[in-house]
Amino acid sequence: MGAVQLEAIRGCLEGWIPAVIATASADGTPNVTYVSQMQYVDPRHVALSFQFFNKTRENILANARCAGLVIDPVSAESFRVEMLYLRTETEGALFQHMKAKLAGIASHSGMTGVFKLQGADVYRVLGVERIPGPALPRPPARVNLLHAMRSASARIAACTDLDGAVDAALEALGSDFAIDHAMLLFAEEACGRLYTVASRGYAVSGVGSEIAFGDGVIGVAAQYRTPIRINHMTMEYSYGRAALDGVSTPAWPLETQIPFPGLPEPHSQLAVPVLAHGRLLGVLCVESPHDLHFSYDDEDALVALATQLGSAIHALQQQALAESATAGQPAAVTPAPLGQPLEVRHYGANNSVFVGGDYLIKGVAGAILWCLLQTRAKTGREDFSNRELRVSPELRLPDICDNLEARLILLQRRLDERNAGIRMRKTGRGLFRLEVALPLTLIEL
Fold first, then answer.
1. How confident is the model at residue 371 (pLDDT cuts 50, 70, 90)?
2. Is residue 66 included in any domain, yes or no?
3. Using the 8-state DSSP alphabet, how is residue 3 labeled?
4. Considering the domain boundaries, does residue 332 fall inside one?
5. CB neighbours (10 Å) of residue 380?
6. To which H or E segment does residue 56 belong?
7. Which helix (H) or strand (E) holds 418?
8. Is the domain of 286 the same as that of 154?
9. pLDDT tens for residues 258-296?
10. What is its EC number (predicted)?
């Protein structure tokens, strides 16, 4: 059969069907084994995971030439790859990406801590040859990714505020990319956690739910700042319950978990970090109940989408910061509402807020809400500005200037979802109103 370009067989390097590697010792004794990862590097190079000092490793150091057998999981075509060992990388972008992918697989399958990547063995590809045999027909492309990216870019570019950009990104994933299940999480690097601000296609929105860096494909994508793609179901997996932020109370009074909006059995997952100017802003995650749903091309397209979203978020945050500096003063005091008082409790240990006995939010967003409610109780006003929150001595929270608008979006959406008698509405540039339908009884615990 004729020569094949390495680019054409990227789908064989997914790990869904492990690659087989044949090596030979210095005296010519052959050895055949499976390899955890064969990573596409560029049109002339691949990288293999080095995890153990086994016979394969010993052979390759003595005889640099080897051969690999890879199988396309869709068409069942087989290819022989002739390779020459060049070097082992133990740091840098390639090593970190392979390490992250291995960590994502381990976390996805409940094997965290079992696998450890010692290095990325880089090989020059000398040739790729298709092995004769029947092939299965390939399904048609789901969408035209270039057109989808163009449409999504136009949606995001038209947004004038952060809230709109969040919705535009998820709408684009559904209508332009034909992806039914997606979520966007914003990062809080100071505490090593991500929190859900929007989702699409799930039974519960999960707004306000949290996940730690390093937990699952989403947490690993955040921790290593690299895309993580898994295209098969290794075992039933669900994200861990939100921690109580280090609180060791013998009897925690009430439940503080918000259900995470993931699929109960995701067979394909792709998590892409959202970055801007060297800062991690969040993670965009898509899922499917089908195996092999997301390809290398899907990954490339979503990385491009996340890059544009990150630039838009950064620009809109800077715009909001400038607007808050020039925003007018909040409006006058509004009349107090009438009716049966609504009890709101605040637990200072982790800033958890409960409304009418039901858990609402915690952390930075909880601290912001409690600050607003206390100010309203003392002054009677319901109109506030982003600027006063930024300089509030009661908050004193890290990175609040960078994350304030994101936290306000989270808080607004969580209040709307709970429909507990408290809402937030934007009233102008850098201004918003805290609408309260009933009298409030504030209890600090």
1. very high
2. yes
3. B
4. no
5. 12
6. helix 55-62
7. helix 400-418
8. yes
9. 888 989 888 899 999 999 998 999 999 999 999 889 988
10. 4.6.1.1
Among 88, 9, 17, 303, smallest CA distance to 177 is for 303
Q: Find the length of the chain.
A: 445
Alpha-carbon torsion angle 264, 269, 270, 275, nearest 10 = 30
Q: Exposed, middle or buried by CB within 10 Å (0-12, 13-18, 19+), for 68? A: buried
Chain mean position to CA 145: 20
- Number of structural domains, the chain? 3
Same domain, 48 and 171: no
User: For residue 71, what are the β-bridge partners?
Assistant: 78
Three-class DSSP category at 207: coil
Domain that holds residue 353: 342-444
Indicate whether 41 and 82 sit together in one domain. yes
Which of residues 114 and 30 earns the better pLDDT score? 30
pLDDT in tens, 116-126: 788 899 999 99
* Cβ contact 40:10 at 8 Å: yes
Q: Which phi and psi angles does 377 have, rounded to 5°?
A: -65, -35
- State the DSSP code for 421: S
CA separation for the pair 444, 310 (Å, rounded): 37
Rounded to the nearest angstrom, the gap between the alpha carbon of residue 394 and the centroid of all alpha carbons in its chain is: 31
Crossing angle of the two packed helices 216-224 and 93-108, in degrees rounded to 10: 160
Kindly report, residue by residue over 178-218, the tens digit of the pLDDT: 999 999 999 988 889 999 999 999 999 999 999 999 888 89
Largest interatomic CA distance in the chain: 91
